[in-house]
Amino acid sequence: MNHLRLETLGQLAATLGLVVSCGGDVHNLGTDTGGSSGVATGGGSAVATGGSGIGEIGGNTGTQGTVTPYITDPTLPIDPTCTCASSDKICNAARECVPRCDDAGRCARWLANHAVKDLFVEGTSLYYLVAATTDPLGNPDANGALYRVETTGGTPTLIAGSLGNPYKILGRYKNATILQSQDTNGIRPIISVSDAGVASTLGQQAGYAGAMWGNWIAYPDPDELKIMGIDLDGTLEPVVLAQATLPALRVSMPIVLDDTILYGSYVDQNNFQLCSLPISQLASEPTCLPVDTYNGCVYAAASSGNQFYCWSISGGLSSFVPPSTSMKLLYVEHDPMGQSSTVYANGGLYINDVWLDSGLVGHALLVRVPTTVGRLPQEIVPDSLLSRHCSMGASGVAGVPFGVGSSDIFWVQYVPTSDNNQPQYIFSAPLPPQPCDADLPCADSTLTCTNGFCGPA
What we know:
Layout: H1 10-13, E1 19-21, E2 89-91, E3 97-99, E4 107-112, E5 116-122, E6 125-130, E7 145-150, E8 153-160, E9 168-172, E10 176-180, E11 188-194, E12 199-205, E13 211-213, E14 216-220, E15 226-231, E16 239-243, E17 250-256, E18 260-268, E19 271-278, E20 287-290, E21 297-304, E22 307-312, E23 316-320, E24 328-332, E25 341-345, E26 348-356, E27 362-370, E28 378-381, E29 391-393, E30 402-404, E31 408-411, E32 424-430, E33 447-450, E34 453-456
Antiparallel strand pairs: 1-29, 2-3, 4-32, 5-6, 6-7, 7-8, 9-10, 10-11, 11-12, 13-14, 14-15, 15-16, 17-18, 18-19, 19-20, 21-22, 22-23, 23-24, 25-26, 26-27, 27-28, 30-31, 31-32, 33-34
């Protein structure tokens, strides 16, 4: 399973006058087996070592239910020398031992040594990117890293460090993680990291993020005049898939499907079209249709097989099979000027919807929507756990990095780049049963539809 979280196009980004900036609100990850909330430094393991309780600080030792769980009230900064006697408690910013989990089974699971930028789940493994540290002037180092941990617990292991300043996992293919990073010159290389920790640069681009599905990666070149592609089953050499030709000004927004690569093409500043190119006939001329044909689609949310999901300028998320028109409207976000992120998993879309209310207070919500029928969204993680102490900002991204497994969802609180040096907790929550009926069967064949929800047979 690959997932896409593509950034908005230039014309949309230009309209984003205000975005949510949630600062000082994200926290560290202590191991869910150890009990210490200490953090590793440098390129080492970004988890706490098992705590024995020696050196426990903080007189708050109340039981869960009488003391606010950390996940309900996450606080920064965390003192890495603070430890707790019990593995079901972790330290908060006041050096108090508070419950790791709440009564709903939502927990602060692992402690990363720097801000977590992206998460990706494959099977029972969670992969996550840790940002590079920054100096007092905000200049990033090149010590970003990739980690792996079992979703069922245990201690995260470092796969590779010295990855520049990584920010996005494009996907996984043949025991390798494909990610996008950024170097000190502003170039955003696409990097393949084997499970043995060998990192190799596949291609470079500047501007909008790349996309991946199956064995193909697509991304715009630094000038956004060409769409480049890399076949992971081929020579691994970037090839030109398409390029802007007059009257087109530039190309952007690649989307990779089973047998098609889509990309956006600006005819002029006000007219945008989507073009499709069969992977089996890369030398052929692309088919381009006005964006209105796709109900105003302006940036891709996710893809699965030969289906892609696209946000419109009005904030609606629709599903498409190119080059047809819209199949159905799936979701309408609270604020079309926000920067919501989307993951395709378990036969559905998981959406982090972010918005500002009338009082300019930031909000974030994690919901699940089916892709086969039109249904109301199902809340997975409430606003109250995702957007504490948010405020309006002139820059920054309020999207909550998250990954989805077969039974759990994992996320981190958003932190601005200025807080990249802070340790941070990765949280988890069990996925609720999926709603089902005759029109919406259970995606998992081991489950049956009982009383309107999927459950064990």
